Amino acid sequence: MLPLSFREFLDFHGYLLEEYKAPNGTMKKRAKGQDGETYELRDLFEAYAQFGGMPSLAESSLDQEKANMLLDGIYSAVVVRDILERGRRKEQRAVTDALLLRKIILFLADNIGNNTSAAYIGRTLVSEGLLDDGRKTKPAVQTISAYIDALLESYIFYEVKRFDIKGKDYLRTLGKYYIVDPGLRTYLLGNRGGDVGHILENIVYFELLRRGYEVAIGKIGEKEIDFIATKMNEKKYIQVTDNMNAPETRARELAPLQAVRDNYEKIVIAMDCDLISDVEGIKIVKALDFLLSDS
Predict the structure, then answer these.
(1) How do strand 283-286 and strand 214-220 relate by DSSP bridges?
(2) Of the spans 75-89, 103-117, 169-183, which averages the highest pLDDT?
(3) Which residues have CB under 8 Å from 42's CB, separation 6+?
(4) Neighbours of 174 (CB within 10 A)
(5) Overall fold of domain 194-295
(6) Which residue(s) pair with 225 in the sheet?
C-alpha cells in the first residue's frame, strides 16, 4: 500500500475541491479548508511535496517538527527494525554496516530521478568523504547492491529500469530510484527548496503506479524519455518537467517524444506551461490537472 496521493492528501487534511470560472471564462479548481479559507492548489501541492502522504500526518497540522517526529518513527521502524535485523530472520546477506546503509539512503534520496549505479554510489561516497570514518577504499559493489536490494524490499525506494525502445529490451545499467514518499525525503535531507523537477517526477511515478501502470524509463538513441507507462494494451510515453515555458526547455522536453515513431499516446506533464494546445500530436498536460484527474 502506497502513501496518499495528492488527491487523497487533500481529502485527509480536510480540503474540498471546488471549481470556479476565471475572469477569462475558463474553469479552474481551488480548495476550501476546514477553516473556510480558500487555498490555491499550487500552495497545497508544495505542502504535499514537503510533508508527503503518510496518513498519520493529518494529525500534525502540517507542522514540520511534528511531522519529523512521526516520520522518524516510520524511518526507524523500517531501517532499524526491518533492514538492519533482516539477516537474523532471512537467509540473506546481513546488512550490518549502519553508517553505510544511511549514507546510501541519503545518496538515493538526494538523487531521485538520476541515472545511477552501485559502482557510482561507491565512488561518490569515498571521493566526497561521505562515509566520515576514515575509509580510503570504496565499499564493494556487491555490498552496495545488497544494501540497495534491502531498501527495495522494504519499499523505501523503488527502482525503474531503462527500456531500449528500438531494441525492445530492458537495459541492465543506469536505472533510476524514487523514494516512496516525498515527506521522507524532506525528513532525511531537510526542506532545502529547489529540485522541483525531480520531486514532481517522483510524485508522477507513484501516481502512475497507483493507476495500475508498469513503468520503465525509455531510451531512444541518445535521448531519454522519463516514463513509458504500460497497462494491458495501453501505452503512454511521458515527459515530466517543472517549467516548459522557455523555448529551449520546450525543445528539450519534446525532442525525445518526437523521436518515437509509433502511434501510442505521448504526453508532457508540466507544472508550469503557457501552451494551451498539443504540439505535433504530443499532449501538454498541467501537473495539477493530471494529479487530480480520475484517469
Answers:
(1) unpaired
(2) 103-117
(3) 288
(4) 15
(5) Trna Endonuclease; Chain: A, domain 1 (3.40.1350)
(6) 218
Cα pseudo-dihedral 270, 111, 118, 115, rounded to 10? 30
SS (H, E, C) the chain: CCCCCHHHHHHHCCCEEEEEECCCCCEEEEEECCCCCEECHHHHHHHHHHHCCCHHHHHCCCCHHHHHHHHHHHHHHHHHHHHCCHHHHCCCCCCCCHHHHHHHHHHHHHCCCCCECHHHHHHHHHHCCCCCCCCCCCCCHHHHHHHHHHHHHCCCEEEECEEECCCCEECCCCEEEEECCHHHHHHHHCCCCCCHHHHHHHHHHHHHHHCCCEEEEEEECCEEEEEEEEECCEEEEEEEEEECCCHHHHHHHHHHHHCCCCCCEEEEEEEECCCCCCECCEEEEEHHHHHHCCC
User: C-alpha 111: how far from its chain's center?
Assistant: 10
Strands 162-164 and 283-286: unpaired
**Owner of C-alpha cell 502540517:** 62
C-alpha cell at 192: 532545502
Higher pLDDT, 61 or 117: 117
pTM, 2 dp: 0.92
The amino acid at residue 238 is I
- Cα angle 104, 83, 188 (rounded to 5 degrees) comes to 45
Q: Give per-residue pLDDT as tens, 124-153.
A: 888 877 676 566 667 888 889 989 999 998
Per-residue pLDDT for 246 more than 60?
yes
CB-facing half-sphere around the CA of 8: CA atoms within 13 A: 12
- Average pLDDT over the chain, rounded to whole? 88
